[in-house]
Amino acid sequence: MDYRDEAVLIDIGGYKLNSLLLPSKSSPPSATVIFIHGASTSLLDPLYTFRDMRPDNIQMLFVDRPGHGKSEFGPVENIRPDAQADAIAKLMQMRGIESATIIGHSYGGAVAAALAVRHPEKVSGLIFLSPAVYPWVGGIAWYNDVAKMPVIGALFGLLIAPIFGLLSLRTAMKSVFTPNKYPRDYTCRTKAWQALRPRAFRHNARELGALCDWAESAYKNYKNIVVSTIIVTGDTDDIVSPEVHAKRLAKDIHRSELIVLKGMGHKSDYVARDLVVAAIKKLAGHDLDLTAIAQRVEHQILEEQRAERGPI
């Protein structure tokens, strides 16, 4: 069956994953890139940014992680990054993709790391964008703790979260982009409100709760990752600490290049999109100076922030 050109649900063994393949503009493709989205979102998030930015000879696969977007939840183990990595490896097999450059933003970074550790033959390169890949101090937000509870969590997810979530959705989305500019059509085009559906909200809370516990042991295997890796983060990310995650990951993966952009928050996949496309090209074999490109992106960030502040 041909799974190209449109989002489709594919059975990977008892449940289905939703994904969308954008073919390369030239045939056959020289490489494949797979995007793994972060928490509380879907494949529409990276698709919003990269749909019209793919290089001519590269095909892009966008995946709804289990329980997100239109993907089915699958077994309870799917709250863990390693189980999600296994699911994506199976999806790659079903789509006939032997190996790919894996791009993971935020929570998606943990899934990308797990995929590289558990299925190294399927990973030709890695791009981590503001990744959450290590245990951290402080736990998760109070509403996620409540949502995880067996009975109270169900009531909270059904009655409270959708109402207050919708009222504060735009503010919450802006905070993810802070201090960078928030695109006005982002919430609408990514259907961000889908994360407030009761079952999806509770699933996301369980994922976040399991992430820190999973990372307690998982990070010990990062040193076994041998593919070329590019890590992009921002020095003003208040969602996922660059010190705890990205900078530490650069030390654990020996063949990695770390780029820390000044003035960038958590949405590196959007704010640094030009740099991400350059990173894709570099891992595909192009000779590119990512440092120079990063400097141009930083300049753009600074100019946008100056424009937002207006004249002093």
Automatic annotation (TrEMBL):
Record bears the keyword Transmembrane helix: yes
Domain AB hydrolase-1: 32-267
Keywords: Hydrolase, Membrane, Transmembrane, Transmembrane helix
Chain ranges passing through the membrane: 123-143, 149-169
Single GO MF descriptor: hydrolase activity
The protein's name: Alpha/beta hydrolase family protein
Source organism of this protein record: Brucella thiophenivorans
